[in-house]
Amino acid sequence: MPKGVPLTVPDDGLTTRQRRNAPVLGVHTGDGKGKSTAAFGMAMRAWNAGMDVAVFQFVKSAKWRVGEETALRALGEVHVTTGAGGPVSWFKMGSGWSWLRANDSDGDDHAEAARAGWREIARRLAEQEHDFYVLDEFTYPLDWGWVDVDEVVETLRGRPGRQHVIITGRRAPAQLIEAADLVTEMVKVRHPMDAGRKGQKGIEW
């Protein structure tokens, strides 16, 4: 794809503008480092374009605060105070999801929490609440059978409007990869942990 120009143009009856403005479903998978980091980088681009950005973190503990969360929340505040960029929302499964009352689900039932998160995402997609979604580490609830893959794929394929969705995590299901417009596999060649080095602030979080 030299200089951003497609090598082939499909005979699909669409104009160049229609193809260019089509919503993107992206999947970042594989064993290498950088899946979430790349997704958050795309979210920052989306923010700069004035899009409404929403991040949904699955699996990660509510106590973990990754650097990208701090940065994107700060950008959300910039939007509120100056009007630059777009709104930013950030939700964590480990927090019990902010839209659930404390007695709505058992905090230890991670599978039900994941399903509740997906139901809320599906609702927001149907109502076109955001422009750019990051479903961070969402492949794991799919891989573990907590959330039905076919339902997810059907919902994502049928989402209205121009809503971009980026999903991260290892072992992305084949159905999700087949449905995606953009698939990147991070391949690990070498990692500091292979040499017994623990994660470092500013590198891992």
UniProtKB/TrEMBL annotation:
MF-aspect GO terms: ATP binding; corrinoid adenosyltransferase activity
Gene Ontology biological process: cobalamin biosynthetic process
Magnesium recorded as keyword: no
Family matches, as Gene3D superfamilies: P-loop containing nucleotide triphosphate hydrolases (3.40.50.300)
UniProt keyword Ribosomal protein present: no
Keywords: Transferase
SUPFAM superfamilies: P-loop containing nucleoside triphosphate hydrolases (SSF52540)
Coiled coil location: none
Classification via InterPro entries: CblAdoTrfase_CobA (IPR003724), P-loop_NTPase (IPR027417)
Cross-referenced Pfam families: CobA_CobO_BtuR (PF02572)
NCBIfam families linked to this entry: cobA, PRK05986.1
Annotated protein name in UniProt: Cob(I)alamin adenosyltransferase
Origin organism lineage: Bacteria, Bacillati, Actinomycetota, Actinomycetes, Mycobacteriales
